[in-house]
Amino acid sequence: MEGKVTSDRTAKEKAYAVWARDDQETDGALRGLSATAIREKGISVITLDEYLLYELMFFQEKKDLPDKKGITLCAGSRFSSIEVSMVFSLLGKVYVDSCLIGKVDPKICTRKVIV
Question: CB of 5 within 8 A of CB of 79?
Fold first, then answer.
């Protein structure tokens, strides 16, 4: 995981808002989709920046961390042309990592957003 993160959306030019389900775990309906498949289907999903803000708000409201059982694929952000970001919690800590855009794993799922 090296280099700059690029995202589908940023607040660099103008402010925007996103809505995501307020659930501890990811959207099960999107399980089994790679970042490539998500992009091909035109599904709007969470970026790394959006997820980190979501996680902070989730913790402040619920005093707990999201993604205790799974990993959120932040398919709206990429580290390179072949890597996307993913975030998970383990033993009370938050980790950011990357995976290949074609990876499919039952523990990795994304969060659909409405912009």
Answer: yes
Pairing mode, strands 83-90 and 93-100: antiparallel
8 Å CB contact between 97 and 86: yes
Residue extents of the structural domains in the chain: 24-114
Distance CA 34, CA 57 (A): 26
Convert the pLDDT of each residue in 4-50 to its tens digit: 888 888 888 889 888 888 888 887 888 889 999 999 999 999 999 99
Label the pairing between strands 108-109 and 71-78. parallel
Query: Global pTM?
Result: 0.87
Is the backbone of residue 32 left (phi > 0), alpha (psi -120 to 50) or beta?
A: left
What pLDDT, in 10s, does the model give residues 68-90?
888 999 999 998 889 999 999 88
